[in-house]
Amino acid sequence: MAYGAYDYHGKGYNEKTMAQQLASHAPDFKIVAHVVQNTLEAKDNIFIVQDSDTLDCVLVFEGTSTLAEFETSIKMFGTGYCGFKDVHSGYRDKLWWLMKYSMPKLRPKLAKCNKVTVTGHSLGGALADIFSACANSQRQNDPDYRQQMWHQGTPESMTEVYDPGTKTTPLIHILEEDPPADILGEELPLETQAHATTP
């Protein structure tokens, strides 16, 4: 699933879409959410896929997909996130922006999952680790925790966002946003003080 988050970047990179990856390796799973968020460095994919039998979900973060995102990986001084100290600042900044602008769209879907596992490849794996550490911290008064949390609802089977016959034709609009107007002028908090697992 982690490689599927790249969702086809062309020959030599990732030649399969998430839907094709699932069809090949996890046929019981379906894509129930797909957000593409422009973070200035890249247009980052985030997927939620759901097991049709258990109603368990996997939140999948895309890894490094542009040269500009390498700067995220080399921005290595320690900073705070979700009450943790010495968190890799590049990964923290990327997750903070993704949670601020994408989580409001993902939260209603996560509420319908039986349980949530988080994964990603490369940069996506780092985001999955930091996200999971925060979610499992249960620091409910922390602003980073509140920004990424969701409330568990009644698990239910969700609608697939791709045509089950083709696995490539979107059934509903897949959101792709330009950077929010305030992304350039807004400063990340310098030091900031749901339940997820990483495989």
From TrEMBL:
Q: Which GO terms describe its biological process?
A: lipid metabolic process
Residue runs in coiled coils? none
Q: Where is the signal peptide?
A: none
Q: What is this protein called?
A: Fungal lipase-type domain-containing protein
**Residues covered by the Fungal lipase-type domain:** 58-161
